[in-house]
Amino acid sequence: MAQDNFWSAFVLLLLILDPFGNLPFFIAVMRKLPSKRRLPVALREIGIAYAVLLTFMFGGHGFLKLMNLSQPSIEVAGGVILLLVAIKMIFSTTSEIFGGEGGREPLIFPLAVPLLAGPSALATVLLLASRQPGEIWTWVGALSSAVAVTGGLLLMSETLLKWLGDSVMNAAEKLMGLILTAIAVNMLLSGIRSYFGL
């Protein structure tokens, strides 16, 4: 059961982190930096995003209590956010919603937050931790693996874009968007069923 939870959470988080969709934007930001600064900056931003997501995962239950939020409301909100992200993945050409800061070295914004640790990722880790707090280390493992895979793909971004080309990358993002749409709808329906006790 724990292994099933791990893989389902890992796939969900990987879809939300959307490494293929974020490659063009990541490359655009990295190209503005001196070559010797690219790897340290990329590793730092991936590390910051991971720390932010972990904080939300461990602080999720306390946050829900503090804000007096119910489990179904988080599921419905998470489903809505994921659905919006999925629609963006399917219908946009690249991850173009964040503006560039010409010449400046990025710190937290826009690579760590919101590119990696965006609203959908934060809502998802919050939901995982609050739904089954006893499985917290399964969620931590899934998050760590998803961030590691995403980080690895982003660090290889220029090579991947050269190998696969824009059309393959766009097709991969659209496919991930379709899968995420189904997950988002399922999350929405689950929240509605829980609220009405169905």
TrEMBL record:
Cellular component per GO, a single term: plasma membrane
Similarity comment: family membership: Belongs to the UPF0056 (MarC) family.
Name of the protein: UPF0056 inner membrane protein
Matching InterPro entries: Multi_antbiot-R_MarC
NCBIfam families to which the protein is assigned, alphabetical: NAAT family transporter (TIGR00427)
Pfam families, per the entry: MarC
TM regions (residue ranges): 6-29, 41-64, 76-95, 107-130, 136-155, 175-196
Native organism: Thiomonas arsenitoxydans (strain DSM 22701 / CIP 110005 / 3As)
